[in-house]
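COMPLEX REQUEST
Ligand: cytidine-5'-triphosphate
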Amino acid sequence: MNALSNKKIIIGISGSIAAYKSATMVRLLVKEGAQVKVIMTKDACNFISPLTLSTLSKNKVVTELIDGNEATWNNHVELGLWADVFVVAPASANTIANFSNGICDNMLTAVYLSARCKVCIAPAMDEDMWKHTSTQKNITSLISYGNKIIPVDSGELASGLVGEGRMAEPEAIVAYLNDLLSEKKNEGRLKGKKALVTAGPTYEAIDPVRFIGNHSSGKMGIAIADELANEGASVELILGPSSLKPQNTSVKTINVTSAAEMFNVASKSFKHADVAVMAAAVADYTPEKTLTQKIKKHNGNSLDLSLIKTTDILKSLGKEKKKNQLLVGFALETNDELKNAKEKLKKKNLDFIVLNSLNDKGAGFKHDTNQITIIDRDKKIFSFPLKAKQEVAKDIVKHIAAKLKK
Ligand code: CTP
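STATUS: Structure written out below.
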């Protein structure tokens, strides 16, 4: 049986010439056994008739928050709760901007704000509009909200120009949804496995009030710990100072402050682990001495602080690693990214390394999104587009599950 059978799908149609493709998409989804309800904006009704969509979906099409004929209110919350997936196809530049900014001026935007299900967005517009910084910023925001962007196609556009921005073909969208809804069936891939994750920054104390730290929020590592637990692994998360915590209550969190504390806990925990993911931004240097009293300001213009190297936790685990253990590291780079990441992979005896570059927009510290490249021990390279950190965690955990299965 296919993954779309009996699934409840809302199709949102906004004002774009690509709206004509929505008819085929609805027909295909109904053919696959899905229950389909359609919401259209006023502009969408200029491109395709609601009657076509209601006939194909076998359901009344909703276009307004208030139903003028029956003087009743269309319940957007109910619709948002009803659906397993909400697909906005085509999503015009205007609708994308409204979603991104929480503007709620029609039924489609109201359902978007109330939807608790997965949201997939298939943009459709001219190339210049698609590539405009403002649209790309809005797309990055949508990704950070956890929405999925169905990639646009290249080809002839309504303007007569040729370029990027065409809505994906109905068949491609249906295949995308099939894959998305099949994902759930694979959950539990790591049942019986023990996982160790480090996350967040470390703080190296200079004196009782000051420390050396970094901008890591811990978000990426926490998302990985959550996803490993969602897949059934029993997870220990060693977390540096962070205001965040995992959502999956089965994750056992051990809070630490310094690199030395993180090393002590990690080296003990690793002995029993099947997989370890080192996502923490560990300080490479720590003050040689931590002063017991606050350093006072002196007359001179400078202050010398003597720093010594911390233990490289990942490298040390790499030395201990047994054949049946999987070790995953991160590399956050600003230049010569692939070369540096490959060197770290080798030097630290890893099974794979996750590279993120600070040169990619929306990647790295402080963002809800990340763009990664996975480099395997056998030199295979897997590149991923910009995604919400939760989605990135899914890609990494999928890679782990595939490796542990071998
Ligand atoms: N790491 C670690 N312990 C350290 C330093 C780094 O476990 N003392 C781990 C990180 O968690 C990450 C990987 O090593 O998984 C790479 O960290 P990164 O800071 O990118 O590399 P470094 O080896 O510290 O090299 P550099 O800072 O020179 O790039």
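REMARKS: The pocket of cytidine-5'-triphosphate is lined by residues 198, 259, 278, 280, 282, 284, 310, 312-314, 329-332, 344 (CB under 6 Å). The chain has 14 helices and 23 strands.
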